[in-house]
Amino acid sequence: MREPDNVFHLAIPCRDLDEAQEFYVTRLGAKLARRYADRITLDFFGDQVVCHLTDKIDPRPEMYPRHFGVTFRHKDDWDRLVRLAQARELEFFQEPMRRFEGLIEEHWTFMLIDPSNNLLEFKYYLDPRMMY
């Protein structure tokens, strides 16, 4: 089981480090932890995302099976991120919407696409037991 002081790590492909830093740090609000010639390391909502420089970029990303993101415990946090993404004109892959309405799995979701075609999903479940 993950302890609260441990951090999840995810590495993703990136075609341009300046572009990735602009998207994740300046526009989305992640914190830059380190930058090297071939990667940037980010504090992404408390976890670690590393954008590795590569020319292997998915030209036509699809929602499934590959995306990542954050499931928020509080709706206010999800709402705040929606407003930030809209205000900063981030590119939505999927507009904010409600899924599975009326079921225990009911949740709010939206997806962003970064400059390297990585898909980011952000969710909030009405029933916190459905977060996992």
Automatic annotation (TrEMBL):
PANTHER family: PTHR39434, VOC DOMAIN-CONTAINING PROTEIN. Gene3D superfamilies: 2,3-Dihydroxybiphenyl 1,2-Dioxygenase, domain 1. It comes from the Bacteria. It comes from Sulfobacillus harzensis. SUPFAM superfamilies: Glyoxalase/Bleomycin resistance protein/Dihydroxybiphenyl dioxygenase. This is Glyoxalase. Residues 6-125 form the VOC domain.
